[in-house]
């Protein structure tokens, strides 16, 4: 089997005695539900893009595993037992794979809202794996890392090396693609958490048919391609949380916005712009009208 490449290591850096890994926001530029497997999991097609903004996982050697959660959204996770957090699950899964009992002091700085459709938990888990592989000097193949990540969640494999990817199946099929331009991106969340299982249950209730699989995506993904796509979970998410329509309509009416869409199963909405500067102007305008909403302008990791 081929050894793991070093492509994930540039996403980690040493700062003040800690090894730090970015856990970027994962954005679904579209999401098509193409079928349902016998085990109940839905098959999807999507392009994942990752922003330069996100959570941060910091690790350093210790005698045992421990997790501290800080940041503006730390309180949202305070009621969860540590063992239920994907960060600890990722660390224990890597321990098991490596056959070791090495410890680590882990700090998760939670800057993204939870249950928001931007892959926060999956990205946190992937960042934890990246950081601990380096901290513990774990030898692991790409194939083994992919399987370990998939065992943690369907979106985790794509988050291991967070660059724009075409993702299919339940998330196990990940293929790099390129965006045709450096879009600016605005992410907006009004504070409403949406349960992915509930959204899929509503999708079933609405009796929506499955989308036909897309033709092979080759070359660069441009705005014309994206405009032909959609998010099949928008209608069921809006049925559960009608305020999503207000958010998307408001985004559509501000500045020079190229595309407005819900990300994942919600409740975060996104807008693409020509530049980061335009995204920042949209975010500033939106914050004036709704200062209580979480709103972030960023651009994508190329």
Structure, described:
With 302 residues, the chain is α+β, with helices and mostly antiparallel strands. It has 2 domains: 9-176, Ribosomal Protein S5, domain 2 (2-Layer Sandwich), CATH 3.30.230.10; 179-299, Alpha-Beta Plaits. 30% of the residues lie in helices and 31% in strands. It is built from 9 helices and 13 strands. The chain has helices spanning 86-98, 120-135, 142-152, 156-160, 196-205, 223-227, 234-240, 243-252, 276-289; strands at residues 12-15, 18-36, 42-62, 65-70, 103-109, 165-169, 173-176, 178-179, 184-189, 220-221, 257-262, 269-273, 294-299. Strands 1, 2, 3, 4, 5, 6 and 7 form a 7-stranded mixed β-sheet that branches. A 4-stranded antiparallel β-sheet has the order 11-12-9-13. A hairpin with a 3-residue loop joins β6 and β7. The chain is globular, with a radius of gyration of 19 Å.
Primary descriptors:
302 residues, alpha+beta, Ribosomal Protein S5, domain 2, Alpha-Beta Plaits, 2 domains, seven-stranded mixed β-sheet, 30% helix, globular
Q: Do you know the CATH topology of the largest domain?
A: Ribosomal Protein S5, domain 2
How many separate helices? 9
Oligomer: single chain
Query: Largest sheet at a glance?
Result: 7 strands, mixed
What structural class should be given to the helix and strand makeup? alpha+beta
